[in-house]
Each structure stands twice: as structure tokens, then as C-alpha cells.
Write a structure and sequence with these properties.
Blueprint lengths: L2 E6 L7 H14 L3 E5 L2 H5 L6 E3 L27 H6 L3 H14 L4 E6 L1 H9 L8 E6 L15 H21 L3 E6 L6 H10 L3 E3 L7 H9 L6 E6 L11 H11 L4 E4 L12 H19 L5 E6 L2 E6 H6 L24 H8 L9
Parallel strand pairs: 1-2, 1-4, 4-5, 5-10, 6-8, 6-9, 7-8
Antiparallel strand pairs: 2-3, 10-11
Helix pairs in contact: 1-10, 6-7
Bound molecules: 6-O-phosphono-beta-D-fructofuranose.
């Protein structure tokens, strides 16, 4: 018999509730107990720890499609590794976390998180030395190395596509351009994938430098007099302050191109979870349960070559994605970013989409 705690940390995304519900279903079928930790590490180190015992009533099948997290992802000003370190409370915080794991009688902790949560879990791995630590990758940014897929990305691409599909209609009615700013931090996967889906006129991503004059000429030469320019939030515009979409918009206006800006913001993180994300979440939950049965620890579930297996967190460290020194920024994602040989880049160019100065 295993007693498992689950928590969701970092930004929310669609698919979190799917993975929670599938973990509950699979674990109970194996005769294991499963408990939800509320508010991530903030709830775990509360006295007493904030925990939720699941039942078929509290976790019905249909909640698996809903965005957000039934367990929440930590509140504003929450106590977590970062805030504890910043306020000099890290030792106390770590000791409390360890105490809570014992108090809840956990054999396993499943952490459903993004790259920030993963690196913090690795750096503070001593806390989890008495339990099995299994991580499940989720993020709309798709910026986690050693896995081809992350939970929430597919729904975010769908949300962004739906948002832009609507804009395209008004863009056409008024013969104008919409500069739409996407999330994704410093990773262009979300913008690139949604841009292909909607038939964007241009896609600007952090991984590829662009030239504003080339962009303007490309728009002017477009066979249409309307369309969408997707701008990833992480593109760097040195010497300018303000949101990237606003800056590009001003340049286009100065060049005589009638345009508006649009910000889908957090709508990219919500929306009914797509079937693809639900299937992915189910595969990840199944993989996590297999890892528990095999007594694995310090691992993350991952999709590689379309197989769902675990990879060791130590592999992130060995590959330099996670640094041991909290003062040195992680390089976390080099193999998850859009690589120069990503086939979507050539496809975009072949379809007449400007994606920057690739040559
Ligand atoms: O990492 C997920 C993400 O949605 C990023 O794409 C975005 O930059 C950030 O989180 C927004 O964070 P917040 O919810 O704090 O506004």
C-alpha cells in the first residue's frame, strides 16, 4: 500500500485536473491512497498541512476536462522556495516541508509543475529524501527539456487559434492588421504552432532575430490587406520599453499600415482541455503510477519517440539544464526551444509567413 500526495505548482494550464483525476482513478484501482495538497508548497508547509482527501464525489469524472487546478497552484505572496529564500526563512521552510510529509504519512509526492518547480525540487531534493518524488511536466510554454510534450500546450495552441480566428474576421472587415501578443516566456513554441494553425502573416519568436523593415515590406507585399502578426512576449526589442506588440504596432502605423493590438493574455491558459491534452495527461498519470510501482524516485514522466517513460531529474542537472547554484540562472530549456532545424520554420516560410531573418 502506498500513500501518495499530489500537488500542482507554478502557473496553471488546462489538463491539470485531468492528470489529478486520472492519478486518483489509477491509484485507487491499485489499492493506494491518494491525497491532494492544496496551494502547492504553501499548503504543504502550513500547520496543519492543507490536504484534501479525494472521493468519487469530490473528484467526479467530468471535472477532468476543466481548466485551472482543483488543488490551486499557490496564491499571491505564497510561501514557496523562492519567497522563503528571499526572506531568509529557507531552513525553517525546508524543515516544515519535511515535517509535513511525515505528518501526512506520505510515501510518494507527485509534483505537477513547470521548469521552475522542477529545478527547485531538484535543488531542494534533500526534503524529498524520505519519499518517492515523481514529477509531471505541465506548461503552455513547452519549454521543458527531455520531453517532446507538456500538459497544457495543446489546449493553449487551440485557445490562441480560436482567439485569432475571431480576430481574422474583423481584420478582414476593416482591411487591417492585428498585432497579437502571445505568452510563452522566452520560448517561441506557442506562437509558432498557433501561427501555423491560423495562417499568420508573420510570426516573431525569441529564437529568431527579425528586421522591422523586412517585416513591413513583407506585410506590404502580402496578397491580402489584412491578417495577423503573432508576436511572442519574449522577443527582445533592445532600447525600447513597453510591450512588444505595442512597439511593433507603432512601427507599422508609422509605415502607413492600419493596425490594432490584441492581448489574449490568460485566456491561453484556460478553456476546456483538448482531447490531445487529456490523452497526454492520462499517459503521464499512467507513467507516474508505473514509476511508483517500480519504486523510482527523482524522476519526471516524459514523452520521447512517442513513448511515455520516466527520465531522471539528475539528467537535467548533468545536461546543464538545472544548475546546483541558486544564484546562477538555469539554462533549462535549450532542447525545448524552437531549434533552427524545426520543420515548422521551413513550412512557415514555404507558406509565405515571415518568421524573421533565418538565412
Ligand atoms: O509560464 C506560463 C506563463 O503563462 C507564461 O507564458 C507567462 O509569461 C506567465 O506564465 C504569466 O504569469 P502570471 O500568471 O504570473 O501572469
Amino acid at each position: 500500500m502506498k500513500r501518495i500526495g499530489i500537488m500542482t505548482t507554478g502557473g496553471d494550464c488546462s489538463g491539470l485536473n485531468t492528470v489529478i483525476q486520472r492519478l486518483y482513478r489509477g491509484a485507487t484501482l491499485r489499492g493506494w491512497q491518494i491525497v491532494g495538497i492544496l496551494d502547492g508548497t504553501d499548503g504543504l508547509c502550513a500547520t496543519p498541512p492543507r490536504a484534501l482527501e479525494f472521493t468519487n464525489e469530490t473528484l467526479p469524472i467530468e471535472c477532468a476536462r476543466l481548466a485551472g487546478s482543483l488543488l490551486h497552484n499557490g496564491r499571491a505572496n505564497a510561501l514557496n522556495f523562492e519567497t522563503a529564500a528571499a526572506t531568509g526563512q529557507i531552513k525553517k521552510f525546508n524543515a516544515q516541508l519535511k515535517k509535513s510529509l511525515t505528518e501526512l504519512k506520505l510515501d510518494v509526492i507527485i509534483l505537477i509543475g513547470g521548469n521552475g518547480s522542477l529545478s527547485l525540487a531538484w535543488r531542494n531534493r534533500e526534503i524529498y529524501s524520505g519519499v518517492q518524488l515523481i514529477c509531471i511536466p505541465k506548461t503552455i510554454d513547452m519549454d521543458i527539456p527531455l520531453t517532446d510534450k507538456t500538459i497544457g500546450f495543446n489546449t493553449a495552441v487551440q485557445q490562441l487559434t480560436t482567439f485569432c480566428d475571431q480576430l481574422m474576421l474583423t481584420a478582414r472587415s476593416h482591411h487591417r492588421w492585428f498585432i497579437t501578443q502571445t505568452m510563452g516566456r522566452d520560448c517561441g513554441q506557442l506562437a509558432l504552432n498557433a501561427g501555423i494553425a491560423i495562417g499568420a502573416t508573420a510570426i516573431l519568436i525569441p529564437e529568431i532575430k527579425f528586421d522591422i523593415n523586412s517585416l513591413i515590406n513583407h506585410i506590404k507585399d502580402s496578397p491580402n490587406d489584412y491578417g495577423i502578426i503573432l508576436v511572442s512576449e519574449g522577443i527582445s526589442l533592445r532600447g525600447h520599453s513597453g510591450r512588444p506588440a505595442d512597439i511593433i504596432s507603432r512601427k507599422l502605423t508609422a509605415a502607413g499600415l492600419v493596425n490594432r493590438t490584441a492581448y489574449p493574455e490568460h485566456t491561453q491558459r484556460v478553456g476546456d482541455t483538448t482531447a490531445a491534452d487529456r490523452i497526454l495527461a492520462t499517459r503521464m498519470a499512467d507513467c507516474a503510477l508505473r514509476a511508483i510501482a517500480n519504486n523510482e524516485t527523482y524522476v519526471m514522466t516524459a514523452i520521447n519517440d512517442n513513448r511515455c517513460e520516466t527520465v531522471g531529474l539528475a539528467e537535467f542537472f548533468d545536461a546543464g539544464y538545472i544548475t546546483s547554484d541558486p544564484n546562477i540562472p538555469d539554462v533549462m530549456t535549450s532542447d525545448a526551444y524552437v531549434s533552427p532545424d524545426d520543420p515548422l520554420l521551413d513550412i512557415a516560410t514555404n507558406m509565405g509567413i515571415y518568421i524573421g531573418e533565418t538565412k
